[in-house]
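Pipeline run #58 for the internal structure catalog. This entry was flagged by the ingest filter as a single-chain record with no existing model, so it goes straight to prediction. Upstream metadata was stripped on purpose; only the residue string is passed forward. Reviewer on rotation: M.T. Logging verbosity set to normal.
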Amino acid sequence: MENTEKVVYLDNAATTACAPEVLAVMVEALSGACGNPSSHYSVGYEAKEFVDTGRDQMIETEKRVREAVRYLGFGRNEADERTLELIQQSFKDLEQEAGPKSICQIFDLNHTEDGRLVIGQMEIRSKSLSRNLKGCRQVVLFGATLGAGVDRLMRRISLTDMARAVILQSCAAAMLEEYCDECQKKIAAELEEEHLYLRPRFSPGYGDFDICYQEPVVRMLNCAKTIGLTLTDSFMMTPTKSVTAVIGISTQKDRCPISGCEVCTKKDCEYRR
């Protein structure tokens, strides 16, 4: 007869079971990268690269979990263990379904005397964006999406488990932000070779930068064709986990916080970092 009793191990202060994915990495490390990471020989260099990569991955994993917890509205409170487990599982599910794509293009920027911003054929009135782009003569128009697979996953989960669907939404938002940050770092690295520097990413909907400007940005980047991103009549994006943004290009190496909360004027937002 099969034993269906659940065993709960309480002596974790002494020993703790390894998750299979952790064990697999440990075997890989101990089999190949077994040198002293502080030493100056080839096997040591390989071990150091393995350690550095693992450390960076842990930092990024912790960061994306914190972002998901923030999107869930926990504020400065800690999430419970069950929620953290669901967050980790949600990220694994999203990794399998996501097909991230991005597009960017540089345009000249003109500041008119009456306060308008002119980017190509697009004219913008926004004090918030004007402050962000002060001193810039060029901008990067940027679009990104996690793809339709993420939308399908969220719809499927929402039919059977609304609690998990809410967590999945938050994790998808954190994953999209992470992907946009990676894209912006690559753009910044290329521009810095020409002694040009990026301002913070600024999306339609921030401050008084009206959401209707999604339409010209999507059109100017030909997002429907390049990354499969389209708009509804109310300027909502499809796939839903998508972003458009304007990024200023400056000749001055000012501090450039990538995260949007630092340039948002809504100080009482419950999701603020």
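catalog note: The chain has a mean pLDDT of 86.
catalog note: Residues 17-70 form one domain.
status: ready for reviewer M.T.
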